[in-house]
Here is the input.
Amino acid sequence: MNGSEVISAAPTYLSLLSYAEQFGSPINMVPLDKNLVHDLDAMGGRITNKTGLIFVCNPNNPTGTILPAQQLRDFCSDVSSRVNVFVDEAYFEFIDQPYPSMIELVKEGKNVIVSRTFSKVYGLAGIRMGYLIARPDIAARIRKNRMSMLNIMAIQAAKAALTDEAFYKQSIAKNAEAKALIYDTLNDLKLESVPSSTNFVFFKTGRDIKKVIPAMKEYGVSVGRPFPPLTDWCRISTGKIEDVKRFNKGLRKMMT
Here is the structure.
């Protein structure tokens, strides 16, 4: 990006933004809307001749929200005529409704880049295996600035994961079961949350997250870090059902 500006939502996943800053690119953060969804109109309104990239994490981390599909497609198609659009689809497999990937726009030759990972639904976070989909000329430019390299074992693990349909289905099913248990507890406690299209739930405790983190650790549960400006919200990932039950029990104790 050679120091050009990056427009991003706030809060969102920060890794790409931190790498961009290392290359001298300033970050223009745009607050989420009242529903904790990307405000695409506001993001589009920030575009100037200094803008090189718009970053969209969809579903978003940490909120778990997704954009209306047609709205996102129209936005990417429109603004990619002026700037590159990077769409992070790390949690795409957890979306429980018909939903188009922005890979469709890559195939149409747009200035759109899509990222995917094996860290989520495939359960391979430890090997740090991910990939990008982009036009060949864009991919060639990105490759020059690659920040890490893969190893043969990671590649073979990813290939095997793609053929393991039983684990994929189990991962989707167990995640849905775990989220249902979490939502039941949040509803009982009358805690606000947002519908999640990911493997975590974002909810409002009304308490400073810096106090919630050590309080939950007393019950053997680690929750998400602070996500300014939503510092009275908490992110909890799904896991084994027994782990989710431990979280629910600990949260009930903490909130009473």
In short: Residues 44 and 61 are 20 Å apart (CA to CA). The two ends are 50 Å apart (CA to CA). Strands lie at 5-10, 27-31, 51-57, 84-88, 112-117, 130-133, 200-204, 233-237.
